Amino acid sequence: MTTDTSRIELADNAVDSAFAAMMAELIRTNLADHPHKLRDFVRMHGRVALVAEDAEQTITLHFRGGLLRVHDGLFGIPDLVIRGSSEQLIDLSRVPPHPRFKFVPDFRSGITHTLARALYERRLRISGLTANLGLAHRLSNVLSIH
Amino acid sequence: MPLVFPSAAWASAYRDAINANPLYKKSAAAWDQGAIALVCKADAALGIDAPQAIVLDLHKGECRAVDYGSDPASLASTPFIIEASYAQWKSVISREVDPIKAMLQGQLRLTKGHLPTIIRDVEGSKQLVLSASEIDTEFLG
Predict the structure, then answer these.
(1) For B28-61, how does the pLDDT look when each residue is reduced to its tens digit (9 = 90+)?
(2) Domain tally for chain A?
(3) Nearest to A92 by CA among A126, A53, A45, A132
(4) Helices in A74-132 by DSSP H: which ranges?
(5) Whether the predicted pLDDT of A3 surpasses 60
(6) Which of B104, B114, B122 has its CB closest to that of A55?
(7) Interchain proximity A57–B104, CB inside 8 Å
(8) What is the CATH number of the domain that holds A84?
(9) A44 min Cα distance to partner chain B (Å)
(10) Residues of A in contact with B115 (CB under 8 A)
(11) How far is B99 from chain A (nearest CA, A)?
(12) B75 within 8 A of B31, measured Cβ to Cβ
């Protein structure tokens, strides 16, 4: 399995988007630092919109089985839409995995508690989750810095 | 007496403000990744002819030293560089804009350094920036 990170690129309309560049760089670096995440990355198909409501920034991550193109704004009809504050979207990448069961978050973590509360209070909202659990799980893995 | 941003006196006060911030001490207690430079871009209209860098020697919740200057060579060995225009630094220091939001909007840019490391320590980075707001600052323009 290759670790060729040139498979992650910015769409033409995203070259000036700091949010797009940041998320592309985050996933590129995560895959380089943790090559086992490539297993999930190559299985990802679909579009994920990330909406940073306070920053008024939206990007779409378009995964195509080992390819990722990051678009500024909405691109097509997203399978998953994650809406929240800039801080919450960044915190999604900080959720530590459970020490024994790597496929679930560590519920003892303060970050997990904070995000769970934000979801409960609907300050953080995820649309399309039930129909795209696999995509959501893999997204959390490739976004995670852990 | 207000201190002009950026200046050597302001940088020195910034070190003191960081070390007086208990939230920074707590949130950055594990930081051992080296210095972070905050770079203010040149702005001829404000009399800033070259980029000005404040290089913070950070280690485990403490700012051990600060260096202020415009010599690009001083940044060569600095592992992390965060850059912004004068107006954007003014907004962040004045707490008009949240530093994380400013990064997503491209107002603050990590121009050098390992992004996941900064994200892992994002609370420390945030407190670092917020420490600056404790300084009685005089802005140019």
Answers:
(1) 999 999 999 999 999 999 999 999 999 999 999 9
(2) 1
(3) A126
(4) 86-91, 110-120
(5) no
(6) B104
(7) yes
(8) 3.30.1050.10
(9) 21
(10) 22, 25-26, 29
(11) 9
(12) no
